[in-house]
Amino acid sequence: MIPQMAKETRELGITGGEPTLLHEKLIEILETAKRFLPNTALHMLSNGRLLSYLKYAQMISDVGHPDFVVGIPLYGDTAAQHDFVVQAKGAFDQTVFGILNLERVSVKVELRMVIHQQTFARLPQFASFVARNLPFVYQVALMGLELTGYARSNLETLWIDPIDYQRELAEAVEILDGAGIPVFIYNHQLCLLPTELHRFAKRTISDWKNIYMPECDSCALRAECGGVFSSASLRHSTNIRPFLASEVM
After folding, report:
1. Which residues does residue 12 pair with via DSSP β-bridges, in sequence order?
2. How many angstroms separate the CA atoms of 192 and 238, rounded?
3. Within a 10 A sphere around the Cβ of 247, how many other Cβ atoms?
4. Residue extents of the structural domains in the chain
5. DSSP state of 209
6. Helix axes 54-62 and 91-104, enclosed angle (nearest 10)
7. Homologous superfamily, domain 2-186
8. Are 204 and 186 a contacting pair, CB within 8 Å?
9. Is the torsion defined by CA of 164, 239, 182, 82 positive or negative?
10. Average of pLDDT values for 91-118?
11. Is the predicted pLDDT of residue 191 greater than 80, yes or no?
């Protein structure tokens, strides 16, 4: 498919499943993208665990793609928390080794933290862990929860109103930003964030699953706000409200 894609394609996302389970076939995909789409950025989502094998990380690096980033979720600063979230013993250690290996072979890493009931409390400790141990990462994305897949089936265990973790979120952003690590807030509505965090918030929800609540119709910041996932019809913050024009002048 890649040779048929428009040469003007700005970015290509690679996700799964777990792309690294393709082994050598993944290398073939990366090489094909480099050959036929030399000006297209590549962003791959991976749990990072197979990248704990340095040989595999080196194979990916050896492709030499000029604009390639691996987005890896890390759900806490401790093995207990991360392994519980992904339900796999030993996953934290493998993931961290994978991140370190990618740095070793000069592949850019975006760290992703999905914020929910099981992860919000240690956001500041997570930020401190990253600042101390992984300061080389390309960027950190602090992400709101999408209610799909396992999140939907474990709704009561995972759901928390974003308004209830703003203190922890603000502290984490302050730590990462203070350490000089680019940090962004994904999938959050501006009305739920303190004003000082607005500059870190990005519109990141794909257009095909992006909606706005009725409360957003009269909001003066609607054009700058990313809205909500369509799955928010299942559960969303009761604190969503419109900004008045007088509030943003």
Report:
1. 42
2. 10
3. 12
4. 2-186
5. G
6. 40
7. Aldolase class I (3.20.20.70)
8. yes
9. positive
10. 98
11. yes
Place of tokens 């040779």: 3
- For 28-37, the pLDDT digits (tens) are 999 999 999 9
Instruction: Kindly state the average pLDDT of the residues 169-192.
Output: 98
Question: For residues 244 and 234, what is the distance between their CA atoms, to the nearest angstrom?
Answer: 27
Phi, psi at 109, each rounded to 5°:
-125, 130
Taken as a whole, the chain contains a residue count of: 249
Q: How far apart are CA 28 and CA 59, in angstroms?
A: 11
3-state SS assignment for residue 186: strand
Pairing of strands 68-73, 11-14: unpaired
Angle at 230 between CA 229 and CA 236, to 5 degrees: 65
With both helix axes pointing from N to C terminus, report the angle between 79-86 and 91-104 in degrees, rounded to the nearest 10: 100
Task: Work out the widest C-alpha separation in the chain, in whole angstroms.
Answer: 57
177 and 183 Cβ atoms separated by less than 8 Å: yes
Tokens of 123: 């956001």
Under 8 Å CB-to-CB from 150, ≥6 apart: which residues? Answer: none
Per-residue pLDDT band for 149 (boundaries 50, 70, 90) equals confident
Is the Cβ–Cβ distance between 149 and 118 less than 8 Å? no
User: Do the strands 183-186 and 139-143 form a parallel or antiparallel pair, or are they unpaired?
Assistant: parallel
Secondary element (H or E) of residue 248: helix 245-248
The model's pTM is 0.94
CA distance 46 to 52: 12
